[in-house]
Amino acid sequence: MEEKLIARLESAVARLESLSTGFGSRGLPAFDDDTAAAAAAASSSDPSILAFDDLVSQYLGRVSSAAEKIGGQVLEVTNVLQEAFNVQKELLIKAKQTQKPDPAGLPEFLKPLNEVMVKANALTEGRRSDFFNHLKSATDSLSALAWIAFTGKDCGMSMPIAHVEESWQMAEFYNNKVLVEYKSKDPNHVEWAKAIKELYLPGLRDYVKSHYPLGPVWSATGKPAAAPPKAPTPGAPAPPPPPPASLFSSESSQASSSIPKEGMAAVFQEISSGKPVTTGLRKVTDDMKTKNRADRSGVVSAGEKGRSNSPSFSKAGPPKLELQVGRKWVVENQIGKKQLVIDDCDSKQSVYVYGCKESVLQIQGKVNNITIDKCTKMGVVFTDVVAAFEIVNCNGVEVQCQGSAPTISVDNTTGCQLYLSKESLGTSITTAKSSEINVLVPGAEPDGDWGEHALPQQFVHTFKDGHFETTPVSHSGG
Question: With a threshold of 0.85, does the pTM exceed it?
Fold first, then answer.
């Protein structure tokens, strides 16, 4: 026992000695001797740091083991995942030696974690690879590590435990695709997908619940956190171009940056800005409401009648994601947008999705009903619906229900994957004029494989006893 403890202490000291220069290379102040010694003591005796080591060895080790058997891009993104957890450990140790930073200084403190997340996000860009679902699952899951940015109830983030759970929901959509695709092909991929889920649920979630339920622990008497770079004085030479935008950019840096954020960078910038989620939405004034618009009076002029032989449809309009009249969310003409989110909703509102392509929409909360109309290669993740979820005139859609849905209807659709939760297994599924519909249900065990069921699209109608009886066609080998 003593030999193991001594070996662990030596390993911790060696690691922290390397951190004394490592932090400086990331633009953060290097540890001095006193801080390094204090950090070494923290890593060797602090229960929270020891528990983090156990989390990494138990859960992340399983992910790495599966990735090594797969190799290629899966191993590459897993190594980035390992790097992100190592950086989080460094920040937890450093936080115990640092005073709580102000909102402007927090992005500078979290800069190392941001850099790893940007590195992971770069792996999903460019030409789509055969392991895209693996890359997206791992990359989106890293958002769970942003729980360390929680500074209080007014910071604009969910509580740390809830943040970890919500962040994994973003990644689970792609993780489930890995499970389904390789269920009967390669057990190593299935093991990787199961292991990465357990890394966060229950792994990271239970760790945060036990040690940091209210956010990171800062030192009241430690060194002040590094301040963000100051603006140049008048007359001074122009500074070099800024580095890539931070996922944890402060409010002031957002205003000064002219580079638009994309993907997860934009999501985390909004989360960490401290502003309410609805800040960026335009207010609908009275003159913008349909009932008050002169061009929507309903009266058809003579000139309009003369153009009756023109086509009744037009090209796709501008993309929309807005709440109309306080009751209906409209998502239209979104193309290639993977991070669409509706989170400020209630059970009296409906969601209508139209004309979207190669996009993913998350609906976080209970709504009255959801309709997907004329969409292609569209993914929708929702929690609960009061009435029904409808899919109409679509091609290649994937839908995941995380809560309950009394009714799901599929009409005039080709290619539809439905992922049901245990709470939604009692849902009633109605199909009409549709083909290639598969329903996936969770296994009996918590970590069991998903079961895939193809809904019939051919039927036999026979006249018996004064009425027709309808049964699905069954094929059997001779």
Answer: no
